Amino acid sequence: MLDFTASAAGLRAPGNTQRPDATGKPEVLGGIGSNAHWFDTSVFSAPAAGTWGNVRRNGLLTGPAYINLDASLVKILRFGTRHAELRADIFNLPNRAHYNNPNGSFGDGNFGRVTSILGQSERMVRFGARFIF
C-alpha cells in the first residue's frame, strides 16, 4: 500500500500529515526507474487551503508485486550407521529484482516513481556439507 503524505503545517495539526485530493482512481502504468511513473499522477491535486485531502492513507494503490522463489537441493549419503548431507540452497532462484513502493509524497519531484530496490535482490547460492556420526 502507498502512503500519500505532505506537510499539514497550515492545518495546525501537529503530528498529522496532509494528503492530496484525487479526482478518480489512478491508472497503474507499471513504469520502473527515475524517468517512468508507476501510476498516473495527473489525477492528484493539492487540496483547498485549510481542508484535508480526500485520499485515504492506504487502499488507493499498491506497489510492485513481491515474488520470491527459494530452492534447496539435498543429497544424503549413507555409510552404515553414519551419513553425510550435501546441500545447495538457492535464494531468489529466478533472479528477479524486488522493487520498493513508488514515492507517495505529493509535490515531490519523484512522486509516483519507483526509484529503488528492496534490500538485496540478486540470486545467492550457498553450499553446505555435514557428516553425522
Describe this protein's structure.
With 133 residues, the protein is mainly beta. It contains no helices and 7 strands. The chain has a 3-stranded antiparallel β-sheet, with no helix packed on it. A hairpin with a 2-residue loop joins strand 5 and strand 6. The mean pLDDT is 83.
Q: Quickly count the helices.
A: 0
- Could you state the order of secondary-structure elements as H and E? EEEEEEE
Question: Kindly, what is the distance between the CA atoms of the first and last residues, rounded to a whole number of angstroms?
Answer: 51 Å
Shape: elongated
- Helix % is under 10%
Rounded Rg? 24 Å
Secondary structure class reads: mainly beta
Instruction: Give me the oligomer status.
Output: single chain
Average pLDDT rating? 83
Strand content bin = 25-35%
The largest sheet has its strands arranged as: 5-6-7
The number of distinct β-strands equals 7
- Poorly predicted spans: none
Largest sheet: 3 strands, antiparallel
Write the layout of secondary structure elements.
Layout: E1 6-7, E2 17-18, E3 21-22, E4 44-45, E5 71-79, E6 82-91, E7 124-132
Antiparallel strand pairs: 1-2, 3-4, 5-6, 6-7
Task: Record keyword descriptors for this entry.
mainly beta, 0% helix, two-stranded antiparallel sheet, 133 residues, 27% strand, three-stranded antiparallel beta sheet, single chain
In short:
With 133 residues, the protein is mainly β.
